Amino acid sequence: MLKTEKTKPEVLEAHYGSATPENVLRVLHRDAILAQEKSIGEDVYEKPISELDRLEEKQKETYRRMLEQLLLAEKCHRRTVYELENEKHKHTDYMNKSDDFTNLLEQERER
Known about the structure:
The protein is an all-alpha fold. The radius of gyration is 40 Å and the shape is rod-shaped.
């Protein structure tokens, strides 16, 4: 009973100013005026566009920081590979010198 009373055209017209659906933008402007948040002359797209611009700037900054981190990781990887190659060459040289020394000792023993 209470539910049907709320949906009566007289109640809707008293509460919303009209019992029939209106243009959505007009309703939004009316509600804004009633809530004293915005006036009809303001651009309803201004805030979303500024938020989108802020989000775009944040994304660019995040992309730049991620790229810096990637370059830093790549630099560390290159340095590690260089050090490993250097150690490999040192080990090869050490083994060659060790073999030469062993051969020299064997020759001395044979004499």
